[in-house]
Amino acid sequence: MGSYDFPPTPTNEKESLLPWVETPLIYSSPLSRQAGCNIYLKLENLQPSGSFKSRGIGNLMQTSLNPSATSTHFLCSSGGNAGLACATTALSLSSHSSPCHATIVVPTATSPLMIEKLRALSASAVTVIQTGSSWQEADNYLRTNLLAPEAGVEKVYVPPFDHPVIWEGCSSMIDELVKQFPLDKSLDGIVCSVGGGGLVNGICLGVEKNLKKFNGNRPKVLAIETEGADSLYQSVQKGEMVTLDGITSIATSLGARRVSQKTWELANGGYDGFVSATVTDKEAAMGCIKFLDDARILVEVACGATVVTAYNGDLRRHLGGDLSDDEWKGKNIVLVICGGSNVNLDILKGYKSTYGI
């Protein structure tokens, strides 16, 4: 705890094929001071693809491999990070099995930086198609035009978030967490960002699987979106599933116009202690900038949405608003640092200028 411990060397063939790694859980003094409680960081930015997507996407792709196939073609629609996870995993699996190719279909809102990173992986193994104004339109293009059977090729559709095997992969984060978290402390809350819902679905699943290890105390789950990409929050407010007309937030990685049915069920009573909330784009950008200063970790705004709750008072307001200062001081909260690759120093400088941060 408190240091960057690398995962152990794989000891068997199945483990060596895992497209994700065990990530550290560290205590953050700077964020704890800001939030007024104990803040722990689950560093999913250290995954091979740069985000938590390596877990769910990797799990789906690995379990979909057909040992008898001559080659496998993975097809993924994505706002960016799921596509990077798919492409990264395809390259990894190719070194352990028959050749794998990945075609990533992204909307026009996907930044040039993300397109560049996708295309830089391997021109021979990764194809990038940019079409449609939203993830849904990109996904419709993929389903309509790219899934036709092809002789000698095993085609596998890889959705970015809405699949039980993806949620199962994301739940491995909680399997790690119960081993890493101090045994003498109670875990009171987990905070994560929400796009389509794959991450939060996996977190809730993981908690339920490991409830005995939490001594029966189910931590609250705070699900954060940015305004303009807040399909879950609007659904909760209206009491029915909402499909956004479009995505207006700068956090394009959260750009699902409609969350998964499972996410809605969890928010609508399926998980006791589920809280849905939003932050502004400016707050999410501020979270990235402050986090870089305090933790020396660079993340995109989709992750900054989670981080900023430790700075702007939202964490206490949503998870401890009725507690005294002394009671809140003893609470233990994990922030899922989901990572994301749509960021560099120039982008952060742009945020500082645009929002006057």
From TrEMBL:
The keyword RNA-binding does not apply. The lineage of its organism: Eukaryota, Fungi, Dikarya, Ascomycota, Pezizomycotina. Pfam families: PALP. Keywords: Cytoplasm, Gluconeogenesis, Lyase, Pyridoxal phosphate. Residues 22-339 form the Tryptophan synthase beta chain-like PALP domain. Its main location: cytoplasm. It is an enzyme of class 4 (lyase). It comes from the Eukaryota. The keyword Cell membrane does not apply. It catalyses: L-serine = pyruvate + NH4(+). Pathway: Carbohydrate biosynthesis; gluconeogenesis. It is found in: Cytoplasm. PANTHER family: CATABOLIC L-SERINE_THREONINE DEHYDRATASE (PTHR48078:SF2), THREONINE DEHYDRATASE, MITOCHONDRIAL-RELATED (PTHR48078). GO terms for cellular component: cytoplasm. InterPro entries: Ser/Thr_Dehydratase, Ser/Thr_deHydtase_PyrdxlP-BS, TrpB-like_PALP, TrpB-like_PALP_sf. Its cofactor is pyridoxal 5'-phosphate. Its EC number is 4.3.1.17. It comes from Podospora fimiseda. This is L-serine ammonia-lyase. GO terms for biological process: gluconeogenesis; isoleucine biosynthetic process; L-serine catabolic process; L-threonine catabolic process. Belongs to the serine/threonine dehydratase family. One of its GO terms (molecular function) is threonine deaminase activity.
